[in-house]
Amino acid sequence: MAYIVHGATGAQGSPVLASLTTAGHTVVAAVRNPDAVADGVPAIAVDLASADSLASVYERTDGVFVHLPMGAPEAAAAQARAVIEAVDRARPGRVVISTSGQIVDQSDSPLQAAADSPIMTLIDGVSSSVPTAVVAPRLYLENLLLPVVLTPAREEGVLRYPLPASYPVSWSSHLDVADVVARLLTDASITGTVAVGHRPGLTGPDLAVAFSTHLGREISFEAITPEAFGDLITPLFGPAAEPVVDLYRALNAQDGNTIAEGNSAQERLGLAPRPVKQWLEDLAV
Q1: What gap in Å lies between CA 189 and CA 197, rounded to an integer?
Q2: 25-55: per-residue pLDDT in tens?
Q3: Which family is it part of (predicted)?
């Protein structure tokens, strides 16, 4: 019996793999290229859009961690359908799904994912087959490590980001999400949605204070427009920058992006996200 971790070489899956392995669990990395996985870690090549490929891996496993990679909606929808079919056929012990920042737990929010979206299709389909838990973060602190954000903070003392200074966000790191995923994979008593992130939400100046303490120089926060941010990240992301800009336009139309207390990891699991200063230290930024 083992746990299957999708995307085990990526930003989300890698810390989940490390957390489970450190705790002594048997873990198999489900990836496109097994050669990219560290030596000593069992790995298997899978096609996330092929139910046949996935079902053979899911059989007789304790749990599966899965998230939909960024990409075209059509590709994500095909991947969601493949995972659903594979789970229904193989019946793993449980499945933990990360929303990767999409909002699925605030039905009154304009940012709530549509009922027919790939992520909601995945959640509804898998939940109907096996015990399922959903991890719902908001924005990742790792976004602040993009060169176009971190370099000006270091060299100019300015943390620029496409949100108003007073805008509260339930920021979390991939490490925080991994802590919650590992707990949910190994604790079968918890199902439903667990939101991950700081409560109360952190503002731009809150982030600047943590960066100031860690970097040993005064850092100020400067709000920029989503379009200006798009100009900065397009050389890095190419066409993939466009949906990022659209996301921040949508976020700017709201008063904040925070999780509720009732389904928070703090309330449901007793797990709080790392302070930003600790996160910076843990990553040796």
Answers
A1: 22
A2: 999 999 988 887 877 889 999 999 999 999 9
A3: Belongs to the NmrA-type oxidoreductase family.
How far is residue 187's CA from residue 216's CA, in Å, rounded to a whole number?
40
Query: pTM for this structure?
Result: 0.95
Burial 16-51 (b: 16+ CB within 10 A, else e): bbbbbbeeebebbbbbeebeebeeebebeebebbeb
Q: What is the topology classification, in CATH, of domain 2-130?
A: Rossmann fold (3.40.50)
Q: How many angstroms separate the CA atoms of 85 and 132, rounded?
A: 15
Q: Is 267 exposed, middle or buried (0-12, 13-18, 19+ CB in 10 A)?
A: middle
- Asked if pLDDT for residue 1 goes beyond 70, the answer is no
Query: CA angle at residue 181 from 179 to 185, to 5 degrees?
Result: 120
What six digits make up the tokens of 45? 């090549």
SS (H, E, C) 148-178: HHHHHHHHHCEEEECCCCCCCECCECHHHHH
